[in-house]
Protein: DUF397 domain-containing protein
Amino acid sequence: MSELKWLKSSHSEASGNACVEVADNAHQIAVRDSKHPELPWAWVGREAWAHFTGAVTEGRII
Structure:
């Protein structure tokens, strides 16, 4: 697998205490805790990711 390019969430705290990073490999979305990048991350299907981010945007998930 090629190296993933991780991007920090725009909703992460400036202090760095609540940081989520995501990477896109064209088939799935990888999600990890930026405070512990050495730990395993989760793969999420594109459709599930779209539902999740839509719910966050609409305020259904805080």
